[in-house]
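This part of the workshop introduces the protein records we will be handling. To make this concrete, we reproduce a full record directly below.
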Amino acid sequence: MCKGNSTGSDSVRIRRYKKATVYLVLQCVLLLEAIILLITEHRTKSNKFENSEEDFNKTKMKLLSDIHDMLNKKVKFENEIKEIIPKNLQLTEGNKLLSKHLREMDGWRCYQSTLYYISSEEKNWSESKQDCSKRGANLTIINSNEEQDFFKTHDNVWIGLNNMEGTWKWVDGSPLTLSFWASGEPDGAKECVVTSEWKTLPCSSTFKWTCERKPSIEIKNLSGIDSVKIRRYQAAVMCLVLLCVLLLTAVIALCVHIHTNNTNYTGDSSELLINITNLAEEKDQLLTRNTDLTEKTDQLRTKIVNLTEARDQLVDKNMQLAKEKDGLLSSYRDLIKQRDQLHQEKNELLKSIHGMDGWIYYQSNLYFVSSEKKSWTESRRYCAERGADLIIINNREEHDFVKKISANANVWIGLTDSEVEGRWKWVDGGTLTSGFWDPREPNGHRGENCALTYSPGWADYACSDLFQWICEKSILK
């Protein structure tokens, strides 16, 4: 019996052990699966971080390469800016030279890339040559038909041809090869030459002269290539700015992505973020420098535009001055013609004056001294019938002249106070302001209203008295 009870108890224990063994096996299996899962997840995360780190390093290297390329472009851009600056200085210097050239152009005339000066005064040949030397030029050398035609309107003007050494040479020592002698020239006894048709004259004679010289500067324009380069520089700056913005955006996005997906690697991420921040600061510095360079470029371009406009204004002013000078020369020639015409008319008038019986010319007026005697009114009528009037004495010189031509005789003059007693007026209606009265005159009151001149001075007499008279008329009327 005892044996039988023991057997039943053992069976129960064995079942319990079996259950416990199955449970432990299941636990081990679960733990093993958990360990495998953890190991797998750890390896996955490690590989993922390694891949992320590798991608970041590649990105970092690419960014560094882009920054290096951008620095090279910046250096290239700065070099091109340095090339623009000398051109800007050259343009400024050109404008200064143009202003100086305009100041030197006073009296000069440009023809076929040569400046010519025609003097307004007259000198001998040697003095003319010295004047040209002072102006940085020399007496004109005529080497072509066109140049000879240019001087056709200028007669009797010294040129740089002479025979002082026995042969005809120009002032620069070159021999005469092309000539435009007038008929019967050259005369070997005379050593210097004037235009327009060449004539030989003594070098001591005085004439106008002509100088010639080359312009002191040549105006240069900026080429179209320079303008294209400036536009390219602007486009390059804009592209660099956009590239920097994109790179900065990519770096920030990459930093955020790495920081979000790698929180377990804070130390490495912090170090990478610091590097990215440094790169961003370098980019900002580059952007600032590029912005400064862009502003400088815009300033230089504006200055170039302003200098170009100033140069165009100076060129326009030069052309306007040349036109004004041509107009003045034309007016000068017209005035010379008018002067010659007036001289001719004056000579003809003087000839006609000499033919007028009894009339005397003095200071653009004609005077007639009568030989008979009449009253003041009849004397004035006589003068009026001959387009004249009784004389009006305006100054001491004319008073002395009247005394001279009248031989101090008593002669009526054109002065009366017949309208208002004591208010003496000339026959042209002018009021007497000062006269040459005899100290005792006038003294006739209402009975003596007409004036005459005699040896002591003027005196008033009755207008009905009979005296000689003097008529006066202007030759300009």
